[in-house]
Amino acid sequence: MESQEEVKEEGVGYVVMRNLFSREEDFQMKVEKKTRKKLMRESADRLTLGKKMHEKEEFQKKMNPDSLTHPAEFMVKPKGQTVWEGKNVTLHCTVAGWPKPRVAWYKNNVPIDAKGHPDKYTVESNYNMHSLEIKSCDFMDTAEYRASALNVKGESSSFASVVVKSTFVHPHDSSALALYYSSHFHTFLPPTIIDKFGVSFGHEGETMSLGCTVIIYPNVKRYQPDVLWYRDNVLLKPSKWVNMHWSGEKAMLTLVHLNKEDEGLYTLRVNTKSGFETHSAYVFVRDADVEEEGVPVAPLDVRCHDANKDYVVVTWKQPAVEGSSSILGYFIDRCEVGTKNWVQCNDTPVTFARFPVTGLVEGRSYYFRVRAINRAGESRPSRVSDPVAAVDPSDRARLRARPSAPWTGMIKFSEEDPTVGVVPGQPSDLAVTEATKSYVVLSWKPPEQRGHEGIMYFVEKCIVGTDTWQRVNTGMPSKSPRFALFDLAEGNSYSFRVRCCNSAGVGEPSEPTRPTTVGDKLDLPSTPGPVVATRNTATSVVVSWGASKEVKRLVGYYIEVGVEGSNVWVPCNNKPVKCTRFVCHGLTTGEKCVFRVKAVNAAGYSDSSAASEAVLVQAGIAIPAPPTGVTLAERFQGYMVLSWQAPTKTGGADIRGYYLDYRTVKDGVADGWHELNTQAVTGTSYKAVDLKENKFYQFQVRAANMAGLSVASPPSAPLECKEWTVAVPGPAHGLHVLEVRKHSLVLLWETPAFNGRSAVTGYYVDIKEASASDGCWKGVNERSTQKHYLKVAGLKEGVSYVLRVSAKNIAGVGIPCEPLGPIVAETRPGTNEIVVDVDDDGVISMIFECSEMREGSQFVWSRDYEALTDTSRLNIQTAGGRSRAIFTDLSAEDLGSYSCMVTNTDGFSSSYTLTEEDLKRLLDLSFEHKFPVIPFKSEMAIELQEKGRVRFWAQVAKFTSGCQVEYVFNENVVTQGEKYTMHFDKSTGIIEMFMDLLEVTDEGTFTFNLVDGKATGRTSLVLIGEEFAALQKKSEFERAEWVRRQGPHFVEYLGFEVTAECNVHLKCKIGNIKPETEITWFKDAIEIEEEDEAAKHITISKADTGVYEVKLKDERGKDKSLTLQCLQGGNVPVTTDCKSLRIRASGKCCKCKCRPASPSCRDAKISHSDRVQCGVSGEQLWLKINEPTEKDKGKYGINIFDGKDGVKRVFDLTGQDRARVVGGLPDVVTIQEGKSLNLTGNVWGDPAPEVSWLKNDRELKSDEHYTLKFEHGKYASITIAAVTTVDSGKYALQVKNKYGTEAMPFTVSVYFPEDEEVKGDKKE
Fold first, then answer.
1. Of 108, 158, 1004, 1105, which one has the greatest count of Cβ atoms within 10 A?
2. Where does the Ig-like domain lie (predicted)?
């Protein structure tokens, strides 16, 4: 029945129920005829749809272990295989089930004990993949094998047959040949992982890459392996934080912008059709540096749960480091996807690591992050969470659901919906899911009667004991059946109920909840149990502890490490671990460490456990590596001598011995292994007796230490027991290497057990790269060596080498021994060399240190790589990781090569060769240390001071505070007194001795004797003969001068000066005078009275010689000037003052005539002018020519005469050039600070002048700051690098030769750019 009302689509079930209870009388049933073909088609569709639904249900049951358990089921069953005898075979299977089933293997229904027969069976179970490996298959391994999987739901089994065939193959059997070549040439091999990544360390914000090389054979492009990466057994998927790459050979995992969430155990798993291979290593992520000291580090692992239309629960994990104080709480931020605006969700810090966020907008997606806070401040934000959408869970499930089968029809109805306008019913199952002191979370189920329109919820609360219900969210009804209530009074009890509402109205309230007390329901975890630390490797320790007994919702444990006695704790892991055993990596070898553990859950941290006992970080003891290179050293009719190479790794303990096994080989078929010796063999060779002649034997060797037996070495080749009749010697044995460095190593060996027909006369050593073919062997030594060791040099760093030794005798060179190696040419970290030391007592010793000492490790010293037999020459002292070999009496007998190795380590060794040059140097150095000499920076010198005082001084270069000085004169010790004053300034090292006056008895030798511990020093000064007399006379003169200067005295004695006006000034300068000091002038011993007018005008005639002097006198003393004679007369007016005296003579005076002379012209008198000037200064007559020209060249003469006699001096300026600066320099230079200044001046002069640069009248020297150059005799330059304000000043370029001196001044001004800008701003 059709109408024009709105047509709606409904489910089939609803329509059927409506029609069943319909009371309408006009209901009609429509019958449609269908063909047979159509019916068959619909039936097939229904069957297909039912099958798909059943498969989906079964798949969901298996993938959801929390819903239903299901029995074990073999997803991949083991397959039967056929193998050749002596080969290995592996059976694989994959099992699913819940609970996780346990798999056991059976052989012909008999359980296989893999632990009891580890050399035969290996059973592995990883990631629901199970395997059984059968090693060295023989005929008895042909059987039916069964894999049984068992859990609580039942048991399931799968069978596979293994057939072992003999190695004999008929040449016409093509199928057998194919299987033979497939097995022998490894046509199908499980993957092999090489170049494995190890334990890695990174910091937050960095990028880290992990990679391995994978060998897959055959490499078929069509069948590429599955390369899977796991973190903590959780499969990783590519994201913005994780990138994966597979190149066909190398698997790479790149962690972009590391965070603490990335810490964990990483596993690479490679799956192929022939098997799988895995490799795991731990990655540690350290916290980034905090911006402020004391703040906590960022939280981690932020996740979103229980998302609804307007509500989501955010959880996180607390950080390992709380900072300088405990964490007070956390702030949660949200950001809408597509924006960068972060909004804080809570105003008050929450203490729980869980918080319900409300007020989300339906249909939008959000990111969340968390910040921790303590008293010092806030941490950095955590890594953002994955985006979460605020939608109804049913809508999210519908969006995630797979497409269903296509609907083949549609039912339509046109009547009015009877549910429109229905008030919703009561919600059900209301409960308090979370209750803390900060919030309470309610959850409920929607009502059954709610209509087809959306409903919302009102939440009401009531304090227990009252009947008053208060609506919590009146203004904003909740759209989700979850609600978080905040701001509840801590300690009060509340009941809650919920009402539903829609457009029709508000429904009845739900049943109230039981009373809920506001407070933390989740308690802090209890303290973890005792902590036990055990050694693991050289940089790691295994830490185990007891689990917290009282803990709910455990997040994990944090482990902290500290050096014993330091009380400083550092986290070992930044991501909590749930197990009770953890390997702490990245420790320092040799330190004693203690450990403690604390548990953490959503409520917070537990108390830290008690610290463990201190453990030394060293490699633990393990079983040794297997020996290698089992070869035949000698054979006879009933015995054979075997040799082998010691294990490359001893496992951290001494090798206590070796055990040998043997088996017979007949026609290529080997028998079972049998023990050859019951007592351990201490050497690397063994004589096997009671063997049968002409039979073939194979041998294998195992090494033993205190940890146990190693795995067996690779079997030797079949060896025939018969007499050796060759004439050449057998192979050397016992090959091992010491002192492996990046460019050299030392190879050692032992004498062959079989010498041939004559004694061994020498050895040859061959070497080749490990990857090279057998034709690439090269000889190391051209001539044979009789020693049992050889240093091999010229190696390439990082390259692997193999070595072998051949012995020779008179008959020839024997066969080479089994190669040793591969050995990588590299210098291991922490490798030290032997250091030769001479201590303060002159004792010569050799010192070797090892930083990787293990329990039981010992230093073994040898000379020329042989055990020390004469211990009287060397005294060995060992303490900790340091060994010292002391020479008792070093001499030529001790020349040779000394080596030291450390047992129970990976080859730590070194050597030192003592040569004749080293012997002489060490003996000289020992003598210096036994009898040390104090060095002097300055030897003893003498200095004459004021008052005639004599100072003897010297300066010591190196001394201690205990240095003492002895003062000696003529072998007699002198002390402090009236005559001698001594002083030793230990801050500068200057030694001084003063004498007020030198007397005749002071002639001799003065000495300073120094004693500083056992070091001595001596410095002397000899004062005798003329040197002493001159010094004594000078001392007496200085003392007399000092006495004279105590009273009135002459500072400058009487002198004269002739002026340009031809006046003669007699003058002197006096000092230390008083008003009562008498100053008297004399001429020819006649006093000149200042008041005598006649005496003021004294006429000096040509025949008279005037002698003038001045005398000073007062109660302190007296002094007189030197006499001065005047040759001509005149009127002499006398004037005096308190500080200077001057006599000015007028009238006739000394005449000075200056005239130029040349061969071509007669003498001409030079007249005084502005350009040409002459005069007298003191006792000097001078002539000055300003700006000379070519016309001024010639001969100049000076005539001095008194009317009777005269003196003439001639000076030639013909063809000569004085030094001068001809240009190139500015007057003022202004330059910005930090720039470099370069100036060049042009100079001239013949001969070439001497050039110097002056700054503030002080000469400059060339250094790093000033660069001074003078090139080609013409160009003088100065360069000032990076000028500063200190370089401002007055400079000058000064040139000088024998004809004159000239200076060109200029000024340098350095300014700041900022100062110029300020000046410019002020002007504006």
1. 158
2. 71-163, 191-284, 822-915, 1048-1123, 1231-1309
Q: What's at 562, amino acid-wise?
A: G
By three-state DSSP, how is residue 1145 classified? strand
Q: What is the pLDDT of residues 140-176, one digit of tens each?
A: 888 889 999 988 888 899 999 898 886 544 434 434 4
Confidence of residue 1091 (pLDDT cuts 50, 70, 90): low
pLDDT in tens, 1064-1081: 677 787 877 777 777 787
Smallest CA-to-CA distance from 1077 within 1023, 1115, 1103 is with: 1115
Q: Which two tokens stand for residue 726?
A: 């060759």
Burial (CB count within 10 angstroms: exposed 0-12, middle 13-18, buried 19+), residue 565 = exposed
Q: What is the pLDDT of residue 397?
A: 53
Q: Are strands 470-471 and 456-463 parallel, antiparallel or unpaired?
A: antiparallel
**Tokens coding 491:** 């300690």
Backbone phi and psi for residue 782, each to the nearest 5 degrees, phi listed first = -70, -40
| The pair of three-digit structure tokens given for residue 709, joined into one six-digit string | 């037996």
For the chain, the straight-line distance linking the first and the last C-alpha, in angstroms and rounded, comes to 97
pLDDT tens digits for range 582-640: 999 988 888 889 999 999 988 888 888 999 999 888 877 788 888 888 888 887 778 88
Q: Rounded to an integer, what distance in angstroms lies between the CA atom of residue 1310 and that of residue 1287? A: 7
Of 898, 906, 852, the residue nearest 876 (C-alpha):
898
Q: pLDDT tens for residues 1034-1069?
A: 888 888 777 777 778 777 777 777 666 656 677 787
Taking every pair of Cα atoms in the chain, the longest distance, rounded to a whole number of angstroms, is: 181
DSSP category for residue 996: S
Kindly state the DSSP code that residue 259 receives in the 8-state scheme.
Answer: -
Tell me 42's DSSP state: H
Closest CA to 232 of 706, 502, 577: 577
Neighbouring residues of 1222: CB distance < 8 A, sequence distance ≥ 6: 1242, 1243, 1244
Q: In the predicted model, is pLDDT for residue 351 greater than 60?
A: yes
Say how far apart CA 26 and CA 979 lie, in whole Å: 151
SS (H, E, C) 435-501: ECCCEEEEEEECCCCCCCCCCEEEEEEEECCCCCCEECCCCCCECCCEEEEECCCCCCEEEEEEEEE
Q: Which residues contact 650 (CB under 8 A, 6 or more apart)?
A: 624, 625, 703, 705, 903, 904
Task: Round to whole Å and give the CA distance between 294 and 287.
Answer: 14
Q: Indicate the residue type of 574.
A: N
Distance, in Å, from the CA atom of 491 to the CA atom of 1205, rounded to the nearest integer, reads 133
Report helix, strand or coil for 918: helix
Which pair of structure tokens corresponds to residue 165?
């065939």
Closest CA to 668 of 166, 137, 135: 166
Rounded CA-CA distance 729/753 in Å is 8
User: Strand pairing partners for 417?
Assistant: none
What is the Cα 960 distance to its own chain's centre?
37
d(CA 781, CA 747): 12
Return the CA Rg of the chain: 54
Q: What is the pLDDT of residues 753-798, one digit of tens each?
A: 777 778 888 899 898 888 888 788 888 888 888 888 888 888 888 8
Question: Distance between alpha carbon 1320 and the CA centroid of its chain, in Å?
Answer: 50
Closest CA to 488 of 472, 509, 505: 472
Least confident of 25-29, 623-627, 971-975: 25-29
For residue range 1151-1204, list pLDDT tens digits in order.
233 333 333 333 567 766 767 777 766 556 777 777 677 677 777 777 776 555
280/199 Cα distance (integer angstroms): 9
Q: Residues 6 or more apart from 371 whose CB is under 8 A from it? A: 298, 299, 330, 331, 333, 378, 379, 380, 381, 382
Residues 6+ apart with CB under 8 A from 846: 834, 835, 836, 837, 884, 885, 898, 900, 912
Number of other CB atoms surrounding residue 1095 within 10 Å: 16
> Per the structure block, which two tokens stand in for 33?
């005829």
